[in-house]
Amino acid sequence: MLRLVRRAGWVGVWANVVLAAVKLTAGVLANSQALMADGVESLTDIVSSMLLVVGVKYWEAPPDAAHPHGHKRLETLFSAGVGLAMVAVAGGLAWNALHSLRQDSPLAPNAWALAVAVLTIVSKELLYRWTLHQSRLAGSPAVAANAWHHRSDAISSLPVALAIGLAWISPQWAFVDKVGAVVVSFFILHAAWKILGPALNELMDKGAPAEEVQRILTLCCAAPEVRGAHHIRTRYLSAGVDVSLHLLVDPNITVLEGHTLAHEAKERIMAGMPHVLDVTIHVEPFGATTARPLLPGACDPVTSTPQVTP
């Protein structure tokens, strides 16, 4: 996993170094503010890819005495940082483009700017697809966030190419190049939210969806000795899920038997849901509490079949 993440990061770094240099140079020489804005967006891709390369060794470090749950939150913070950086870049690009619209007789971009914009669309889309594939292999939200950053560059280059093409064909429409830079900023904001939204939910300990909770209940109650389960709590740690629950068992069994049932339930959950990182189970005597489940779903004490609680 570490090797996949680093490889994705380094490929992103060098690809964006080349693209940023080409776009910024062509933007200056070809009189295209939209292309220069696109080049600045590629610079943020370089920063995010470098952070990915440097940060992966920290969030993949094993748990220690000071961090018993591991360091996965660093990956979430990285994703949030990438999203916030994209918001800042989008705001700066929009402000600069709107300010430049007030200038008289803007120069029209030339054909070189259009060629570079088209090249960017193709190369960044290919880089997005490859990086997203790497994120699935590695199971890394941070790599996925970086992939979406590449996709935002590809998408933002579409209005750039259209604006440059129109301004090149009809010089009296040269101001459209500046409008293209503003459109780019909105595309970047949209991509930023796709990264920030999941990261913020994770930082707020948002639980797993109802279907995953139901799956946990089904696996937990697969043994006939289990009388029920409730107080299920889940939270995401990067791409994994941390689970805790109360397991209801016959109050007359021994402590050892209760412990064995809990251990077997944990093994079933982790085997049936590979993305579950850990399961903490509190063994509770059935009938000792009348508390209702905190989340939908409970086990019928006779059939051990999960039933949805209204």
The domain tally reads: 2
Tally the beta strands: 5
Helix content: 55-70%
Radius of gyration over all CA atoms, rounded: 26 Å
Q: Output the structural class.
A: mainly alpha
Strand content: 5-15%
CATH topology of the largest domain: Alpha-lytic protease prodomain-like
The biggest beta sheet reads: 3 strands, mixed
Keywords: Membrane, Transmembrane, Transmembrane helix, Transport
GO molecular function: monoatomic cation transmembrane transporter activity
Subcellular location: Membrane
Organism: Megalodesulfovibrio gigas (strain ATCC 19364 / DSM 1382 / NCIMB 9332 / VKM B-1759)
Brief overview:
This protein is 64% helix and 12% strand. By secondary structure, it is mostly helical. One of its GO terms (molecular function) is monoatomic cation transmembrane transporter activity.
